[in-house]
């Protein structure tokens, strides 16, 4: 065939390490690979049909994301969440998403505010039934709305990197962790009103307090850990 010489098309290529990363990550997030499960190179090679090098590269990336942990010459395994890590991830996400909220809410239009109000109404129903998993799902939907409207690309990238391990740790420990439901009910109410009023600072403070960040007015009891 004749080859055009006036322009060169952009060809998107995905590396094997990226394919391996996504496959292993998805298996961790959907529960196929369990917390604490050891990740054997040979078994992963057989499963994915690729060589060891891209798999090791993928595992290193997953370790940086907080989904995999390893010890030299000993093991590589799926992270098993513990209470200290979960609280740290929630606070970290609160710092990042607080920044996203402050830079984004003031630019919301009527459709954005309506979409946010819809999320808040559904959150209220989840809180009323103490549905931890639905609350987490709707929280992620709220993050996605904020990120889709955020004009700061660096903040968006940072927030997305924090969301993956946070959602994993919260989902896995949902049966052991009892949130402070009153704090969440109050926080979501304040957040919804702030977005409706177009007040980015009030929205930021409400979101940060919901993520366990200390504020001068914060007198909430911490979450309770133990089998429910």
Task: Bin the strand percentage.
Answer: 5-15%
Roughly how many Å is the radius of gyration?
21 Å
Structural class: mainly alpha
CATH class of the largest domain: Mainly Alpha
Shape descriptor reads globular
Q: Percentage of helical residues?
A: 55-70%
Largest sheet: 2 strands, antiparallel
Q: In CATH terms, what is the architecture of the largest domain?
A: Up-down Bundle
Can you write the helix and strand succession as a string?
A: HHHEEHHHHEHHE
Output the number of helix runs: 9
Q: State the strand order across the main sheet.
A: 1-2
In the CATH hierarchy, the third-tier topology of the largest domain is known as: Four Helix Bundle (Hemerythrin (Met), subunit A)
Total domain units: 2
For the termini, the CA-CA separation is: 67 Å
| CATH superfamily grouping of the largest domain | GntR ligand-binding domain-like
Low-pLDDT residue spans:
1-5, 8-12
Q: Give average pLDDT, whole number.
A: 87
The counted number of beta strands is 4
Report on this structure:
The protein has 228 residues and is mainly α. It has two domains: 16-78, Arc Repressor Mutant, subunit A (Orthogonal Bundle); 83-217, GntR ligand-binding domain-like (Four Helix Bundle (Hemerythrin (Met), subunit A)), CATH 1.20.120.530. The chain is 62% helix and 5% strand. It has helices at 16-29, 41-48, 52-64, 83-104, 110-128, 132-149, 153-172, 181-197, 200-210, and strands at 68-71, 75-78, 177-178, 224-225. The strands form two sheets. The chain has a two-stranded antiparallel sheet. Strand 1 and strand 2 form a beta hairpin. The model is unreliable at 1-5 and 8-12 (pLDDT under 50).
